[in-house]
């Protein structure tokens, strides 16, 4: 799938893998510079990274403050994603200018940071997936036994989340997804992959999770048609039936709410 990299049993979002590669490259390059100049940059490098990451996260939280107000603890859930890259690069540059000496070393570090920033913005633009048609949907079944026909989803945007009760990140995000599904007119389907109605029903009851958005895909046909075994996975499908974004892994309320707000605007 676009923007997803699979290495054996491990699945990465391509942009997150790019971020890890660039951060590692920055650290190694700074270490090489320190060796060449016989100066210690380790402490400054750590400060640069911490300041950049915190600033990028804080900027994202400020932009999406209404969503984070509902789950303030999720501010610290860095693994869910949600960063404003330019804010992080600016903070990192400020720390370099403030703490790094001699000035020649600071200029080299700023040049390295600029190259990293250029690689990030160019790389994310290149790997950003284009909208693609949603594969043919299999018939889905609600917990009450009624069937959701694929044609019932046509002509309007829809959010589709693939999950299972055995999947830890699925369990963490499911209550929030079910809550958001109840609060919006955008159809949200939380499609369980491969489990029986009794297992799903018992899990939802034990955790007091709303069942209105739950659907069952007993054969995991949707995962197969998407050619991905990664769970959880959230698909954002526009009114034309094209997948405009795929989020692999646990999704934050802020990221979900931002896309739903866009879809709500399209429905008006």
Protein described:
With 268 residues, this protein is α+β, with helices and mostly antiparallel strands. It has helices spanning 14-37, 42-63, 65-70, 85-99, 103-127, 168-182, 197-206, 221-225, 253-267, and strands at 4-7, 10-13, 132-133, 140-141, 147-148, 158-163, 188-193, 214-217, 233-237, 242-248. The mean pLDDT is 88. 31% of the residues are buried.
Could you write a compact summary of the structure shown?
The protein is α+β, with helices and mostly antiparallel strands. It has helices at 14-37, 42-63, 65-70, 85-99, 103-127, 168-182, 197-206, 221-225, 253-267; strands at residues 4-7, 10-13, 132-133, 140-141, 147-148, 158-163, 188-193, 214-217, 233-237, 242-248.
Structural class: alpha+beta
What percentage of amino acids are in beta strands? Answer: 15-25%
- How many strands, which pairing sense, and closed or not: the largest β-sheet? 6 strands, mixed
Tally of helical runs: 9
Number of strands: 10
* Terminal Cα span: 31 Å
**Poorly predicted segments:** none
Mean pLDDT: 88
Q: What is the C-alpha radius of gyration, as a whole number of Å?
A: 22 Å
State the helicity in percent bands.
40-55%
Q: Note the overall shape.
A: elongated
Strand line-up of the largest beta sheet: 3-10-9-6-7-8
The ordered H/E elements are EEHHHHHEEEEHEHEHEEH
């Amino acid at each position: 799938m676009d923007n997803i990299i699979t290495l054996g049993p491990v699945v990465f979002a391509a942009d997150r893998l790019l971020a890890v590669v660039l951060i590692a490259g920055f650290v190694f390059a700074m270490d090489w510079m320190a060796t060449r100049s016989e100066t210690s940059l380790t402490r400054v490098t750590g400060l640069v990274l911490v300041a950049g990451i915190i600033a990028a996260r804080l900027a994202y939280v400020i932009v999406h403050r209404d969503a984070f107000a509902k789950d303030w603890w999720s501010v610290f859930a860095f693994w869910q994603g949600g960063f404003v890259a330019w804010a992080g690069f600016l903070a990192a540059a400020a720390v370099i200018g403030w703490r790094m000496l001699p000035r020649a070393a600071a200029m080299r570090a700023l040049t390295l940071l600029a190259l990293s920033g250029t690689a990030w913005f160019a790389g994310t633009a290149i790997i950003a997936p284009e909208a693609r048609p949603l594969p043919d949907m299999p018939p889905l079944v609600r917990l009450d036994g009624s069937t959701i026909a694929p044609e019932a989803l046509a002509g309007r945007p829809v959010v589709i989340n693939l999950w299972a009760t055995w999947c830890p990140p699925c369990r963490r995000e499911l209550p929030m997804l079910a809550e958001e599904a109840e609060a919006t007119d955008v159809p949200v389907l939380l499609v369980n992959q491969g489990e029986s109605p009794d297992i799903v029903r018992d899990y939802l009851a034990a955790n007091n999770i709303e069942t209105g958005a739950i659907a069952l895909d007993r054969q995991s046909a949707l995962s197969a048609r998407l050619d991905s075994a990664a769970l959880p996975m959230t698909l954002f499908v526009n009114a034309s039936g094209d997948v405009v974004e795929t989020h692999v892994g646990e999704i934050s309320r802020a990221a979900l709410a931002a896309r739903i707000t866009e879809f709500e605007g399209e429905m008006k």
